[in-house]
């Protein structure tokens, strides 16, 4: 089942379905999971990964909040949604940068996911009006 289908079924959506926003919501949800997993893997590393763990967990929290706001269609607060999407973009930038400093495969994968998420959020942001 897809989140896009769920959004399309909402009574307030009708012909106003926003595909870029649905894609961004899906990627933000996946990004939160990847960042959480990366933080957990960082805990098992034999080196001090505290900053990476913190950055990944912060990004996971921001991405989770963004994904949840993106799928809510009743009584939309466009200003709140836009601010949260901008926060998600910035959190993903910071996390990709931090994870990019490490040679661990889990960090590389997390950085890639963060870059994908921020690009999808950037594409969707102009469609939110």
UniProtKB/TrEMBL annotation:
Gene3D superfamilies referenced in this protein's UniProt entry, alphabetically: 1.20.1270.360
Pfam families in UniProt: Csp (PF03860)
N-terminal signal peptide: none
Name recorded for this polypeptide: Four-helix bundle copper-binding protein
Organism: Sphingomonas gellani
């Amino acid at each position: 089942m897809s989140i896009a289908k769920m959004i399309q079924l909402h009574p307030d959506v009708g012909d106003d379905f926003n595909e870029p926003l649905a894609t961004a919501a899906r990627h933000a949800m996946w990004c939160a999971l990847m960042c959480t997993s990366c933080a957990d893997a960082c805990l098992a590393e034999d080196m001090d990964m505290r900053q990476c763990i913190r950055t990944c967990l912060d990004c996971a929290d921001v991405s989770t909040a963004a994904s949840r706001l993106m799928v809510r269609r009743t009584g939309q607060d466009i200003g709140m949604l836009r601010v949260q999407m901008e926060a998600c973009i910035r959190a993903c930038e910071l996390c990709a940068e931090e994870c990019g400093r490490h040679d661990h495969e889990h960090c590389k994968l997390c950085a890639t996911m963060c870059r994908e998420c921020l690009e999808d959020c950037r594409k969707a942001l102009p469609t939110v009006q």
